[in-house]
Amino acid sequence: MIAVFVVGGPFAAAVVALIGTTDNRELRGEVPWYGTLFNHASAVVAVVLGGVVYEILARLAPQDPSTFAMVSFLAALFGSGVFILASWTLAIAAVSARTGVQIQTILAQDIGGVAANFAGLAPLAWLMAQIFKLPDGVGWWATPLFVVPLFTTRLAYARYVETRELFEQTIEALAKAVDARDKYTRNHSSRVSFIAEAMSRVMRISEQEIEKIRWAGLLHDVGKIGIRDNILLKEGPLDRGERILMNQHPTIGAEIVAPATQLAEEAPLIKAHHEWFNGSGYPDGVEALDIPLGARILTIADAYEAMTSSRPYRKTPLTHEQAVEQLTSFMGIQFDPEIVPVLVGLDRAILDRPPDRPDELPTMLHQPDPRNAPTGPTPTAPAPAAPARPALASDDVS
To answer: CA 7 → CA 12, 56, 72, distances in Å?
Structure first.
């Protein structure tokens, strides 16, 4: 499209944008009509704006061939910048409106790719246009030579996107597999990841760090794969031996993800998400700022999500106010006192757990919970009640 407005002006570029942006999904009817209309209209608007800017600047060029080439190149860069910026702005607005993600978040995520597009595609587009203008029909057969590198680049990028999506889907599936061992922890990891990501954005952490925290949140309990059900699903308080085994799950989780190159930076966060700010946590007893920032965020998000959810040892979840009181009480002890207010200040739409839908339960959880079934003969006298697990933040983050 950039090459076309250099050769033929805005109108020719608009025709190419209108037709050339047709996607196979549109032809198969997989994109709603308004999506198709927006995609084509945004491409036309952006390329016309870029073409107009190029024409205005190119007309200022002197007739001297060497100077004209330089001015034409600079004009193409400016026109390309306008085209890419307009296209990017329209796309960001559409994504934000559709997903609810804040515009500044999408900007931060995409700025690198947009800059790379400008730096790589704009000069190439100008060069294609100059090759096309070669006399004696040379340009007609020389220009298609650009198709091969462009196509292979496009194909490689598509494969990269598919691989990344597969990677993220695998992480989410693994997190759900861990949570699905018990109906009380279903979606716990995704909720912790969601809350931690929201906290990170309020704290204006870089997008690279936010992504690391989000993935670590999804996998923070993956080490529970190595914990036996009679400990993990126990209703009463754990004895000393059981607590020692349970406390191994951060280490087990870090060991599980560490060999994966893409998750190597998440492993320390997973391992440290039960460390306490005063150094009395586990597994290593590190304290304060020696605990990675992402782990300190996850600790708070994990505690809040656990306290406001049902658990085998506490069927009635704490209210938001009760959970906030617990977090505040343990500031400087278990939790970073500078980060707790970040969670407390989040919108309740982020913090409140959406209602569970029974039809979304994994098949393994469709049957009644055996822990709720009576066992043995009915006692003639009421059995002594098991000691209640205290509703403390430290106890709710097993």
So the answer is: 9, 14, 11
Q: Give 338-386 pLDDT, tens digit per residue.
A: 999 999 998 888 888 776 655 455 554 545 545 445 444 544 444 444 3
Instruction: Render pLDDT for 16-27 as a digit per residue (tens, 0 to 9).
Output: 999 988 888 888
What are the extents of the domains in the chain?
A: 2-133, 164-354
> What are the tokens at 3?
């090459």
Residue 299 corresponds to which amino acid? T
Q: Which residues pair with 335 in a beta bridge?
A: 331
DSSP 311: B
Sequence-distant (≥ 6) Cβ neighbours of residue 291 within 8 angstroms: 272, 275, 277, 299, 336
Q: Are 302 and 220 in contact (CB under 8 A)?
A: yes
CATH number for 164-354: choose from 3.30.450.40, 3.30.70.1450, 1.10.3210.10, 1.10.10.10.
1.10.3210.10
